[in-house]
# Entry
Amino acid sequence: MAHSEDIDPETIYRTDALIAEDIDAYLETHQHKTMLRFITCGSVDDGKSTLIGRLLYDSKMIFEDQLATLEADSKKVGTQGQEIDFALLVDGLAAEREQGITIDVAYRFFATEKRKFIVADTPGHEQYTRNMVTGASTADLAVILIDARQGILTQTRRHSYLAHLIGIKHLVVAVNKMDLVGYDQVVYDKIIADYTAFAEEIGIAAFTPIPISGLAGDNITSKSEKTPWYDGPALVEHLENVEVMVTANQARPLRMGVQWVNRPNLDFRGFSGQIASGTVKPGDPVRILPSGKTTTVKRIVTLDGNLDEAVAGQSVTLTLADEIDCSRGDVISAVDAPPQVADQFETTIVWMDESELLPGRSYWMKIGTQFVSATVQPPKYQVNVNNMEQLAAKTLELNGIGVAEIATDRPIIFEPYADNRDLGGFILIDKISNATVAAGMLHFCLRRSQNVHWQDVDVDRAAHALQKRQEPRVVWFTGLSGSGKSTIANMVEKRLHALGKHSFLLDGDNVRHGLNKDLGFTDVDRVENIRRIGEVAKLMADAGLIVLTAFISPFRAERQLVRSMLPDDEFIEIFVDTPLSVAEERDVKGLYKKARAGELKNFTGIDSDYEIPQNPEMRIDTTKMSPEEAAEIIVDKIVGSWSYTI
Amino acid sequence: MSLTHLQRLESEAIHIMREVAAEAEKPVMLYSVGKDSAVMLHLAKKAFFPSPPPFPLLHVDTTWKFREMYSLREKSAKDAGMELLVHQNPEAKERGINPFDHGGLHTDMWKTQGLKQAIDEHGFDAAFGGARRDEEKSRAKERIFSFRSANHRWDPKNQRPELWKLYNTRKSKGESIRVFPLSNWTELDIWQYIHLENIEIVPLYFSARRPTVERDGMLLMIDDERFRFEEGEKPVERSIRFRTLGCYPLTGAVESEATTLPQIIQEMLLTTTSERQGRAIDHDQAASMEKKKQEGYF
# Structure
């Protein structure tokens, strides 16, 4: 027999004898360990927790008191009869323990003689794509567990696809529970053949198959004599020898996102950050982005003295030879191979929030140390993670994965995700709830973002405004249905007209029937509705008009979006503040009655939210003043400051 | 060049601290004077050198820590060039809350309530803590950036996903973040790093002959005259050291001859009980840590 259990697990993990005899020698070897992060994925019954429990147990990461608790728990809630249930070691929170499922990402640690390992333990449950993507984002390697009795399941495909999507280069396909199929090579070969076909289909270039039993310990720390037909490495042996990402990144050009400018006094200005790729030495020429200015590295400063060299993965502080503008969000890069700068991209997005993606809405985007506003276009397609089918989609819901274009409000420095996770991976943050709503991967920038330039026109917005002898404004009325927006806006326009002002009123009647007749009243459509109105209002303001708009416009984020499209002071938000009870009592169009009867869905104030403006330019309390009074003070506000100069 | 696991853990912790310094409005570092705090403080010095760390240290004091801890506390803050804030819950002080008479209430009032008071009082929006994921099962799922509601509650079902190295630090008014830069360190990593970097720690971690009594299977050290003896108890000199440090009447010692760091590490590697066993507060109930955390305990 080629292999047997002649390797004592003791020699793989740690040698108690060496620890006892020569602790200094032991410490010396252990100071040179490297680190690998990996993720285990499998379905609920694939024995994932058992495998991790086994790895911890074999590496002696479990102490006697923990073992005593484990033994007691095993008898109480375990699934292995009187045997130790390793799974209980890794199932954390009380609520989950009772349900018998893991519902989040947990991180575990163990070490061998060569390496320290961080394991991201993620659930195999249907609704938890989000957790697996989270756990995989920091992993060098993924272990895909397959129950030998079941073969490849939908979940296996899904986990493999996700691992591949996140760009994990090292995949281990561990066919588990080999003890339950009599260590049968035929069963194993069939599963691996099936998997190979599937892997080719989705573009997985290579993987390492291993037959194991987490429960019995076969091919985990050492080669099992039960599988003489298998001539590859045991799982731990493989984990010890795989190249980690951070080392591979050293071969690429230098990139370091500036996190923090270190300025203790006027004589020192350093730029702190973690090197994303490449290496750096004093004297190296570098380019600062986005400015494109070049200089050389003067020193690599640390508490322990200056360094001669620093590499990808290290956190350092660099000083530069020249006084160059450089701040948080900038990237210090190799002078002759800088990353790209653009503001429109094709991306893959994984949606992670209970509230669905609203295309057109402005979200915060964090990428490296850059923080910008970004809007997402409606997805080109959504991917069904079970069969990798591309489906048409208007939005993405929790755990949805899709390909969509993203536009940022200013150019950002990036690299394709496949080349660099640090400069290609991003998160989206909801501006109101502050929740992390999505993770994404930039693939490439869109040509038009680099090539489209504004046509310079001779008759510009200032010329338009001058001809009309007025300053353009967008007067934005917002409030509940029936609050009095249209009534007041109408009166305001009449007065403006009488004053000889050039204005235009946009309201439901002239917009919903034409420009926006394809839109309904879902949240997604409401966002798009306001976005279009905002764009039209902006064009009219460019033409020099005073634009009045009267729409419920229930979401703060969209009102903010329109505000941000216009120069300061040109956007005047007017909150027509009528309490729901009053608006409902007036019910001019009988809509509240219908909504209450359930005949109208998504009605603001009833079953759809209205987000009250926090700092409107004006608030009109309609319970305290008449529409005429309101119109008068609004007109005063609009023309007051410059009406006398005409 | 392959980075070692300690180099990578160090780099990660520094990256986390700089993100907080850049994005939080008013950060603070919780400093308990233990070995994890010592490592965290050392990393902060490295992260911002040659500037001093741009935040103060906060010790949430119970008045019942070991005397050696108080003296190292002052020295460490001074060496780092950082402001040291000490908070003692005035209500606990007035009511004379102590570990002998008040059991769980002692930890709750001095530590849990004390921490909330200090954070509210100073308006800190981010607080670094030295907790590690390997300490305890429920901590394995804790995020590096852990969000607390305006009333300091931790909701395990409502934590933000943490992807890559991208930490979302946005929060609403009143909310705060606990940040754990040592999340991915193990007890062995901590000791090895202290050894490698020559970090000063409280001498109680090293073995010496100290006055003790044995109570409920725990070895307690008599650190000052406030210690209350139970019937039949007499101080016995034993060669002991501590694997973890807290309030002295609640912290169990281990008998040991380890007087150097390699010997401590040696003992730790050959030992068979986990680190938190020396802390009385964990034995209350199975999921005790998780409950405490939800209530706002660090």
Remarks:
- Confidence is low (pLDDT under 50) at residues 1-10, 97-102, 451-455, 642-646 of chain A.
